[in-house]
Amino acid sequence: MPRFSHALLLLAALAVGACTNPDRFGPGSGAGGPGSGITGAGLGDVNDPRSPAYFQNRVGDRVFFTVDSSTLNDTARQTLVAQARWLNDNPDYRVIIEGHADERGTREYNIALGARRANAVVEFLNAQGVSNARMRSVSYGKERPVEACPEQRCWDVNRRAVTVVSLGVGS
Amino acid sequence: MRISRRQAMLMPAALAAAAAVPAIVRAQSGPLRIEITEGVIEPLPFALPAFVAENAGGQQYAGELGRVIAANLVNTGLFREIPDSAHIGRITSFDASVAYADWRAINAQALITGAVSASGGRMTVKFRLFDVFSGQQMGDGLQFAGGTESWRRMAHKVSDAVYSRITGEGGYFDSRVVFVAETGPRDNRRKQLAIMDQDGANVQYLTDGNALVFAPRFSPGGERILFTSYDTGFPRIYLMDLASLRRQALADQPGTMTFAPRFAPDGRTVIYSLSRGGTTDLYSLEIGSSRIVQLTNAPSIATAPSYAPDGSRIVFESDRSGTQQLYVMPASGGNAQRISAGSGRYGTPVWSPRGDLIAFTKSHQGRFHIGVMRTDGSQERLLTASFLDEGPTWAPNGRVIMFTRESAGGDPALHSVDISGRNLRRVPTPTAASDPAWSPLLG
Fold first, then answer.
1. How many folded domains does chain A comprise?
2. Contacts of residue B195 in chain A, CB cutoff 8 Å?
3. Which chain B residue's Cα is nearest to A11?
4. How high is the ipTM of this complex?
5. Domain contains A98
């Protein structure tokens, strides 16, 4: 065996291609998205019983859930009965039901769990006389918490379904 | 030519997974050897003197190539670099005889030499690997040629060759990672798809932040990705060509939400979750024909599907038993067998590219773990533990897993860990980051 083995230098000549993606978007570009429910503008006077502001603040636009559950408790049912009454009194409004989860789960499962929560609200409202044609549900999973703290009190309010009303828009 | 001396770096069986991966015991062509799955307790020392610049154009790359290669090797946790300042020998010509005594004296067990020339936007990189203590070259020299803009890829290819010769495993350095870059406050987070080299270099953004996106996945060839976006206001799955950034919506069924897409190994079929009426089932879609097949039909959640590498079976998570657990079923649907058996919740299963293991997220008693198990659910091993670890993705060689880690109240970041549970590392990204997906080797 030779002390120094100088093997053939293989001319592999791998054609190494360049990455040709144009870097079209910088970091942090874009406006973010919706998903935190109604956010203030254009909601009308909170004292006007026909305004979205009234629906949001006086009727109550959201219900809460326990961990991994989509069961509506008594408080949630009372809120949804009031929501249905308002929606039946204000037939020009369409609604999107947003289902949300806390951050203590995996991303895909939380999307599915949020869908299940939103659907529980849709079914309840429908049973209270709100037409399915006026309602659409969407799940945000854990993507849009309302409270950011890594504690139980925040997770409790993040496990929610929010009824977002709007005039004529939506699906 | 076979020499009996081997790296004595075997660790006792506690972390061994050798039984699950018989392929690693195949014969080696050289004496230097690291058994990855045995768990390395002491990294192998190597010397990597600056590459020889064989013309003026090569000078600007000679040092940088070596730095990228050394970083790749050191970051595996299997290798330790002996710094230049300790070197006695000097490599001034690529073809000169190696003075092994100079490298033995500093206890370098492997020596990597190389040379580079560049002109007119083209470059050539060549290297040799030497087993210092046996005084032999390991394998043939190799040469790579390409455009100077892809010099890092050439460094990654050299790294893959060195890693492969010493470990007997396929490499993974010439690969990319697509992930979700996160900016902005937690309650209104901007999420953009981004892609980078596996070592964090060359970050490019693939979407703006106007719509929420999550969980991108590579095609088997690495040239396309699937992902979920809220472009329409509702979660929906999309296919994007990485060269043109053109995208198309898949599987549009009004009144439904679609998410968690992943390619079949044939690259023509996509499996995904569809939520309708509070129930989430798995569907498959042929991209060419748009033919859709419903694969599960249960009043529960079925999501996060992943194909076996041979395309015959699918692993997924479902809460049909009451909590999130892992199931395996035929690719055509049908009878699903639960494979997760421990206490806690199991999600996001991903089949290893070698077919031998399934990586998963587990949550138990308020902690989250990345773990691996055999495909029948046996031999579960947890590799990590933290406030929130989730979403494993496999390196192309099935030896390293990347995942998302989020500390309590902190931003998410990408991390990687060996399947032995060793070498936990943060992967550098310019912003907070989540949902990594590792590409196949670029080839």
1. 1
2. 21
3. B143
4. 0.90
5. yes
